[in-house]
Amino acid sequence: MNEDFYQTLKDILRDEQILIEEPLAKHTTFQIGGPAEFLLLPENNHQVAALVKVLCEKNMPFYVIGNGSNLLVSDKGYKGTIIKIGQCMSNIVVREYDGSRYLVQAGSGVLLSKLANKIAEHELTGFEFASGIPGSLGGAVTMNAGAYGGEIKDSIMGATVVDQSGSMMYLNKEDLKLGYRKSIIQEKNYIVLDASFVFEPGNKDDIRNKMDDLNERRRDKQPLEYPSAGSTFKRPEGYFAGKLIMDAGLRGYQVGNAQISEKHCGFVINKGGATAADIMTLITEVRQIVFDKFGVMLEPEVRLLGEF
Ligand SMILES: Cc1cc2nc3c(=O)[nH]c(=O)nc-3n(C[C@H](O)[C@H](O)[C@H](O)COP(=O)(O)OP(=O)(O)OC[C@H]3O[C@@H](n4cnc5c(N)ncnc54)[C@H](O)[C@@H]3O)c2cc1C
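Structure tokens predicted for UDP-N-acetylenolpyruvoylglucosamine reductase:
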């Protein structure tokens, strides 16, 4: 362990916020991934900025994660520091914005399910689509997460971010450059600290019914009983990844314990004990087979971390 670095970390964080050689399998929904040298759990914006500043000054590699629901981490883990923005940074504030609309500001560690429920409690509409996405707000802004016709881009006003030198700034909606599963955050490796949204009041029962309906559709169609990272591939223009994979005859196709879900071919699942290498081999083979059959090269939506 790097003792010097550990001492520097202790100037910013308490002992229990510093995990050493922490298995990342415990922090990803795939339940896969070797250890990170350090995994840090900051509690506020200033701690995140201070950590980034130190890591940059020392020229040490680091990576930010939220709920790990869109991540495939190498079996060898990550040779560097993980900053996990989670429950400790999940405060939510709701207040009047203008005559009819309300502003919702939330820490980037809040889970989308919790945020969607809070917004529903306030009888505001426009975030129902996100209630079943198992990510954090920071990950969702970064990925411009979306489902069932809604996406983060629809209601976001802006976000506070930290750049790679530890400087904080506010980016408004236009600055965030949100597109299909992309944002300026990914391009510039910014870190999202919090985000604000504007919503209109809605009917309480309609909001709840919509959330229940969407979550039921998820349970019906998606293999939620297995660890996964959701849709493995982005939607290619004019096609659906899951349909291409199914039409290529790959339903249930397996490498080691990684499998193309029989329930939803767009999901690669961990059947139990799959390695990152199994998942990668499966992804590579599926991309090649689909390309050979249909001339479409599927692009992974899942983000890769570590050596492959
Ligand atoms: C069962 C299941 C269903 C899913 N359904 C959907 C769906 O319907 N729609 C959808 O869009 N996605 C879906 N996903 C994928 C995933 O939940 C989303 O992409 C989610 O937004 C990722 O958030 P996260 O906090 O888990 O991010 P992580 O997986 O931790 O990270 C993903 C990326 O975001 C970056 N990141 C995370 N937090 C921050 C931060 N605070 N600042 C800067 N960068 C950050 C990471 O560096 C990484 O590049 C699903 C996943 C699963 C497992």
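The mean pLDDT is 97.
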